[in-house]
Amino acid sequence: MPFPRPAARPWQGFGLSSADGPLLPLPLLRLAQQAHAAERAAAIAYRGHRCCFRGRVQRQQIHHIALEEWRHRAWLRRRLLPALGVAPRPLMEAAYLLLGMAIALTCLLIGPFWATYFAGRLEHGNGAEYDRLAAGLLAHPQLARRFHQPLRHMARVERRHERSFFGLLRHHPLLPPAAGLFGWPRRRWAIDTLAPPSAAVGGQAFPQWGLLPVSAYLQRR
Length: 221
What we know:
The protein is mainly α.
């Protein structure tokens, strides 16, 4: 008779042993590992995306967004994954690394509109992913106290990225047919109220959460 497959790996940390601590749902653990792998894929993809533009402002804006992705990945690796008792999955990391490299090369072929369009659509999914992680931790109060607010903040940063990309496309004639075909964007934002690119990417530091400013993170890489 085969052994039953466990529903999740034991929850660890905060002074509770794996025997008496609650079990986290396996999909939630996988979602955290996927977010960690996807952040590197996105940052690498933005290297090709940035090369699609000749304007200095657009290139700098995409560069800042890529730095935010690296910062999110570092926080997930150093803070969230150890608290959940899991490590990055090598096969998932390799798959997403190849995906990011493929997207970077594809951006050079499809041009700035489609590269920016799919980047905005990707950031929309990233924001929803962090919201799901934050919501999933609410059932575990000790984890939620540490990680709910920073995850919600990271979701807001991803949505600022999304609005920034939408701002680059809002007057493009291909946007309406692309939205009808691929389903993004589903609603308009007040783009005129967006902060400048250097402030719109959410680069402020929150040391109580372990989120460093971009400049400090670059010094530690």
